[in-house]
């Protein structure tokens, strides 16, 4: 059973629109969350991380974390075709230990 | 930028054969990881290491062995390859100082 659940499995948004991706850990022994982006045929690259309750913004990307429910979300505003990729959520107990990944959300931004 | 390399990039093996996938990192990271990626399963952790000489089992270690002979190198060994091990394998490195994982380019393994 996947311990990190992501939804939706796939998402299509228009260029300039807002994309919202969700991730929840069923393992309560985690404190750190990451979002990775993986373009087709490439390796995953970290996009953002969040370790504290609340919100963190970097440019067009915003992540939220609710530690009580172990739920994190990634929001991409003004989505661009170059944002089309597989978005992977990962969780771990602390910053230096192994991360467990979800199955990902495939985002497609259409012109 | 952190550098992780993998070899080979592509490999075709026969069922029952031995396969060794190699990973090298020049970032002086303590931790290294092996994942496989299959459609519908995301990235699944096979083995990991917190330093030279140590290896730990991940979530799906059956059929795989790992070796960490030095800080820089981490190998994944399939002693008796099976078609179910056909996948894309990613190596990654990281530690407390960087608080993220850096991935290699991946190895596409096909077992016939």
Architecture overview:
The complex is a heterodimer of chains A (111) and B (112). Chain A is built from no helices and eleven strands. By secondary structure, chain A is mostly beta strands. Chain B has strands at residues 4-7, 10-13, 19-25, 31-38, 42-49, 56-57, 65-67, 73-78, 87-94, 102-103, 107-111. Chain B has no helices and eleven strands. In chain B, strands 2, 4, 5, 6, 9, 10 and 11 form a seven-stranded mixed sheet that branches. By secondary structure, chain B is mostly beta strands. The mean pLDDT of chain B is 94. The interface between A and B is medium-sized, with 24 and 24 residues.
SSE topology:
The complex is a heterodimer of chains A (111) and B (112).
Chain A: E1 4-7, E2 10-14, E3 19-25, E4 32-38, E5 45-50, E6 54-58, E7 61-66, E8 71-76, E9 85-92, E10 100-101, E11 105-110
Parallel strand pairs in A: 2-11
Antiparallel strand pairs in A: 1-3, 3-8, 4-5, 4-9, 6-7, 7-8, 9-10, 9-11
Chain B: E1 4-7, E2 10-13, E3 19-25, E4 31-38, E5 42-49, E6 56-57, E7 65-67, E8 73-78, E9 87-94, E10 102-103, E11 107-111
Parallel strand pairs in B: 2-11
Antiparallel strand pairs in B: 1-3, 3-8, 4-5, 4-9, 5-6, 7-8, 9-10, 9-11
Offer a concise description of the structure.
The complex is a heterodimer of chains A (111) and B (112). By secondary structure, chain A is mostly beta strands.
Largest sheet of chain B: 7 strands, mixed
Pair with the biggest interface: A-B, 24 and 24 residues
Average residue pLDDT of chain B: 94
Series of H and E elements of chain A: EEEEEEEEEEE
The tally of helices of chain B reads 0
Radius of gyration of chain B: 13 Å
Number of helices of chain A: 0
Helix-strand topology string of chain B: EEEEEEEEEEE
Structural class assignment of chain B: mainly beta
């Amino acid at each position: 059973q996947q311990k990190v659940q992501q939804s939706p499995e796939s998402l299509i948004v228009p260029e300039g629109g807002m994309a919202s991706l969700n991730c929840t850990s069923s393992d309560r022994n985690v404190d750190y969350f990451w979002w990775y982006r993986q373009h087709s045929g490439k390796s995953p690259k970290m996009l953002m991380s969040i370790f504290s309750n609340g919100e963190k913004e970097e440019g067009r990307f915003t992540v939220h974390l609710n530690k009580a429910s172990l739920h994190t979300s990634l929001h991409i505003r003004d989505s661009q075709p170059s944002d089309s990729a597989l978005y992977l959520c990962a969780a771990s107990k602390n910053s230096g230990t192994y991360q467990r990944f979800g199955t990902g959300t495939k985002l497609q931004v259409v012109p | 930028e952190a550098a992780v390399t993998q070899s080979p990039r592509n490999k075709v093996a026969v069922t029952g054969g031995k396969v060794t996938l190699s990973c090298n990192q020049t970032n002086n990271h303590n931790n290294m990881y092996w994942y496989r990626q299959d459609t519908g399963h995301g990235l699944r952790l096979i083995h990991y290491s917190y330093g030279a000489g140590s290896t730990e089992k991940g979530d799906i270690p059956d059929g795989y062995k790992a070796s960490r002979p030095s800080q820089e190198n981490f190998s994944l060994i399939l002693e008796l390859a099976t078609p179910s091990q056909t996948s894309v394998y990613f190596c990654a490195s990281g530690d407390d100082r960087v608080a993220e994982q850096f991935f290699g380019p991946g190895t596409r393994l096909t077992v016939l």
